[in-house]
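Quick one - first record:
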Amino acid sequence: MIEFGHGTHEGRRREHNEDTYWADGKLGLWLVADGMGGHEHGEVASAIARDMVVQEVGKGRPLVEAIRQADAEILRHSNERRSERPMGTTVVALHVRGDEFEVAWVGDSRVYLFINGGLKQISRDHSYVQELVDQGAISPAQARVSPHRNVVTQALGVTHPDQLKVESVGGRLAPGTQLLLCSDGLTEEVEDDVISQVLAQDYPTAQEAVEKLIDEANRNGGSDNITVLLVRCRPD
């Protein structure tokens, strides 16, 4: 049995929320998009990404292809508006079919897998600091406090379509599995070990865990928009 919770918050330092999300148990689709470009740019890009992925997955299109279609639609919309300001968004999406799941992403919004008491980030950030970590130039701890930690290297509507890297992973949704999707407004403020502690508490509902994580992010500063989705596979 699939149970899920969802929520978003503008944070404590932003007037507008450029994040958006989708949570649909019937379609088996959960998605977080973190817009960039400022009010009326980032929120438009993230909304286009959400709507296109939902539409294309609903038609039976594979998740990676649906995200590429979203990229094309954002670029088309941006060209029509002829705006000087960039219009882009990250995206991370989860599609569940039976007991199998697929996750695909572009940018630094994340998905974590929690099972048997252990938390693992199964997405890989498309970010400048992640590249430095991969090169051994800085440590993960240094990446968390780097002044460049918000610089993404891939985003819908920004990266050239020929260079767009939509990554994906899949797996089995066994009973007890929890999958957490989030924008960087959560991970900027809440360490992975705290996220793990919250998920380990096994709140009666996924919604309670989501609200706890959003509260933690705001309590720690709330420097950005915060979006959290939690999908749990319960024993029947």
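second record:
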Amino acid sequence: MPIAIEGGRIPFLLKKWATTNSAEVSKLDSSPLRIALVNNMPDAALEDTEVQFTELLGAAAEEVPISLTLVSLPNLPRGESGLGHLNKFYFGMEDLLNSRFDGMIVTGTEPKRPDLREEPYWPAVVELLEWAENNTRSTVLSCLAAHAGVLASDGISRTPFADKKFGVFEHAKVTRHPLTEGLDDTVRIPHSRWNDVKAESLRAHGYEILTQSANAGVDLFIKQRSNSLFVHFQGHPEYSSRTLLKEYRRDIKRFLRRERETFPTQPHGYFDAGATKLLREFQKLAEKDAKEDSLTEFPEAAVAASLENSWRSSAVRIYRNWLRYLLQRKAKSPSLPSMSPAVRA
């Protein structure tokens, strides 16, 4: 079933999975789940992130009708193209705060400062999280948004890694919960982050850890806040099969531009033996002649052809469980919160 995009316009890349016809998604239910996607990713990843979450929600929904509202926080660094895209397809922060939603998904962004509280968008993050406690049934916080959430609500600070935690890691299901129902005992989830929040700090502040990795730490953890279940991911179950490859190429480009000192480490558990060999050969070439033109030799097509999305089934299962949770909450208290449509600014 297609997802209805609020606002009357659909970004080009979403046309395969979305519609503007709310009646089309209401054939089985007169009241679709209303979900806000607060997409804060940098301009280069803005549209890819829309596709990743819309496609994942569509796969997880089965016959559950969904109405999706696109939103972004203010005071994020944006170029002309990013601002133009937001103006065409996104609602503003005030529109969000004047509505209520069954569910909300908040993405991270690329931080510029070690202390997130010094970021220009921090006041908006705090306001958003406080609003979500009483105006959503559940809120998903992805990666940096998860770090911001535990910092704002419980003062839990991040711990930096010596190197980027980058790749696809195995996680054990450590707690039985409706969100992990139907998952295998071990699941694979992508990560891409420089910082970590520790299990002991989370448990000390009342968080329940659902999945954890010996190599990547905690991934999925939850905490009830007022009327809303806050669901946190340090990883990225929404990633497509090529997302880590794109990020790896981006980091290589930064090395070649001398924006970083070291050549990036290959993502863990992601490339097969053939792709690993090709990329090591490219690394030798790039380190020998470190200039941006070297990227013309990057074996992207050959490597991409070998990639498999080994985490897809787990990601769909987790989000299907989340949507079922929203439906159950809605059935128990259909008028809490009451839903009013957002109005584009």
